[in-house]
Design goal:
Number of helices: 5
Strand order of the largest sheet: 3-2-4-1-5-6
Structural class: alpha/beta
Helix content: 25-40%
Largest sheet: 6 strands, mixed
Oligomer: single chain
Distance between the termini: 31 Å
Shape: globular
Strand content: 15-25%
Radius of gyration: 17 Å
């Protein structure tokens, strides 16, 4: 049975600036070090991170501590960080940071629609399902992970059912996946959610959102 751990990156620099790709703060670095303790006694085969710095720096702590293979996949990027996102200036980044999407085809002049994000989520999730690795750590972002978890609960790309989950930094959600392809009257996969946004490994003074 495959296990996938969904991790939100550590605390990033957002104060007094708008950036699509901020660095981790010193608190974020400390959080990432505590995150390694969560995985210390768990079997991990592969770590996959978004291409954004705050996710990569978080994932590297696990990668270096466990000496496991690490991949970068831009499909795990946060909402709106696709295409030419690196060219967005501060005013465009501020616009996208404050943009809320409630309907599938609603979007701003730049960035993704909710339908586009859900299509990206579905694409990368099924890519992960087809991997040989049985125990996978995904390091991504609050918006992306909320949409992914809503997809696992049955929200489809055309639904007007936005679900927002407030994931603390370096919190972990665990999904067990049973491959039921070939079984009559079963879907291809059965998802067994073990917990969402577990942050028991983070000291109280380091809990941030």
């Amino acid at each position: 049975m495959k296990r996938v751990y969904l991790v939100r990156h550590g605390h990033a620099i957002h104060e007094n600036t708008y950036s699509m790709d901020p660095d981790l703060t010193s608190i974020g670095e400390k959080q990432a070090r505590h995150l390694t303790s969560f995985f210390k006694d768990r079997k991990i085969d592969l770590i996959i991170s978004s291409e954004l710095k705050r996710a990569i720096f978080t994932a590297r702590h696990i990668h270096e501590d466990l000496s496991k293979k690490m991949l970068i996949d831009k499909d795990l990027n946060e909402v709106h960080t696709v295409g030419d996102w690196s060219r967005f200036d501060e005013s465009q980044a501020k616009f996208l940071t404050n943009l809320s999407l409630y309907y599938p085809d609603e979007r701003g002049e730049i960035g993704e629609s909710l339908r586009m994000i859900r299509q990206r989520v579905k694409r990368v999730w099924h890519k992960i399902l087809e991997m040989d690795a049985e125990n996978v750590v995904i390091v991504s972002h609050n918006g992306f992970l909320s949409i992914l978890i809503s997809y696992l609960f049955g929200v489809e790309e055309a639904d007007s059912v936005p679900i927002s989950i407030r994931h603390p930094n370096v919190s972990v959600s665990e999904i067990k996946i049973e491959d039921t392809r070939g079984k009559p009257n079963f879907p291809d996969y059965v998802y067994k959610v073990q917990y969402i946004s577990n942050f028991s490994h983070i000291p109280e003074g380091l809990i941030t959102y």
